[in-house]
Amino acid sequence: MKFTAVILFATAVAFAAAAPTAEAKPARSNTSRAYRVNASSLSVRTGPSLSRTRVGRLSRGAVVSVHRFQAGWAQITYRGARRWVSARYLSRGARAVPR
């Protein structure tokens, strides 16, 4: 009986040690990444929704700096302000980010 209890305790400890913890998750980067617009014209909006006001457009090939993604939208800097575009029309791997 003692032997079974020791085995069960050792098994529980091994599973607890192998269980993922909050620290085990990869950290999200706070740095911006360069993306290229792959649509003929991409609307820039005040928020991550089609119902938000359109404040501009980007042309195919434009390079943007993406700060974060949210539900299919990408937050970028546009004319000095944080704005949103549909992430569907961005391709990663642009060479430079405009200032």
Can you put this structure into words, describing what you see?
It is a single chain. The chain has 1 helix and 7 strands; from the N terminus they run αβββββββ. A hairpin with a 2-residue loop joins β5 and β6. Helices cover 17% and strands 39% of the residues. With 99 residues, it is of the alpha+beta class. It is globular. The strands form 2 sheets. The chain has a 5-stranded antiparallel β-sheet with strand order 6-5-4-1-7, with no helix packed on it. About 15% of the residues have low confidence.
Order of secondary-structure elements = HEEEEEEE
Radius of gyration: 23 Å
What summary fits the major beta sheet? Answer: 5 strands, antiparallel
Helix/strand-derived class? alpha+beta
Mean pLDDT: 78
Task: Kindly state the number of beta strands.
Answer: 7
The percentage of residues in β strands lies in 35-45%
Please tally the helical runs, counting DSSP H or I stretches of 4 or more residues.
1
Uncertain spans, ≥5 residues at pLDDT below 50?
Answer: 13-27
Distance between the termini: 71 Å
Widest sheet, order of strands:
6-5-4-1-7
User: What is the helix fraction of residues, given as a range?
Assistant: 10-25%
3D shape? globular
